[in-house]
Structures are given as C-alpha cells and as structure tokens.
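Appendix B. Chain record.
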Amino acid sequence: MKKILVSLLGLFLCISSFNLLAANPKVLMETSKGNVTIELYPEKAPKSVENFLSYTNAGAYDNTIFHRVIKNFMNQGGGFTADYSKTPTNAPIANEAFNGLKNKRGTVAMARTNAPHSATNQFFINTADNAFLDHKGKTSSGWGYTVFGNVVGGMDVMERIANVKTGSGGPFRTDVPQEQIIIFKMTEIKAKPGTTKQKK
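Structure tokens predicted for this chain:
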C-alpha cells in the first residue's frame, strides 16, 4: 500500500511539474513607443486566442495603428492602417467574457460593436481597472468584453501611449493619437525545439 501511495505521489508531482512547464503562448508587439509582450490564455478564451494568433501569424497586425486612446481607460488598435484604411477581417467570433477573467489594468480584451458576438480583429489593452466592461449576464447589456491575455512585459509602453495627446484623425472625431502610434510587427514567441517552457 505504501509503495502504491509513493508511486501515486510521484505521478502527481510529475504531472504538476509538466503543467508548470507548459507555458501559455506569448506574442511580441513591436510599436513605435517600444516593445510589449502579451501572454495569452487559451484555456480561458480558446476562440479569442485562436482568433488573435490567426491574425498575428498572418501578419494582419503589422503596420497597423492604435487608433483610439483614452487615458485612464484603454488603448485600442489592430483594425486600421496609418492612413486610416480598415484592414480585412475574418468572421466574427463568439463572446467568451463569461470566462472569469476581469478587465483589470494590463489585460488584453477583444473590442466589438454593441452586438455581443461581433469581435473580429480589433483589441484593446486596459490601462485602468474597468469592472464595468466585465461579464454580468448573457443579456444585450450584460455580455461584457472578452479578456484573453495580459501584458507581462512593456506596460510602461502602454502608459506612454496612454499619455499622448489625442484629437481627431481619419474618420474619428476624438481619441485619436495626434502622434501616430504604429504597431510595426506582431510575432508569436515560439518555444525553442526540445523545450516546453517559453522564454519571457
């Protein structure tokens, strides 16, 4: 009996170690204000993460801009080029805001219209705790905004973006950075062959 318990304990520790080593996917965002590293949570928001990585790996976010910046709220981008042309989108995805993740400072969430299941390529990074964006219920006003990642490096870059002067630009009358904030490139950070843990 004692041997069986020892064996089970060993198996548990082995599984636990594997789970600790199995890292969440990460994305490097290179911007005109500096680099940002985003950790994604596929177990909590599988559709949103798959969608975000699909755009990332297709180069769809390269040379786009942060077109909407509101200090002490959020920085939004991913959908427009520097001349304010809308970038192509895939089909909208289902809202996953009921996953338990909250719109806290530093989290990354899907932007959408008033329709709850309308998110495509645009995302935003919360620069404050925004509990009013969280899921309250599966009603037209309660769905909330899906959090699917978190800034794990470069939050100072997000703060620099949040502090730029804003005004009108392109089709928008307000909240547009007057100094264009460009996303030069977004890249999924791949683990090195033979390892399960990604570098931070």
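Further analysis of this model is presented in Appendix C.
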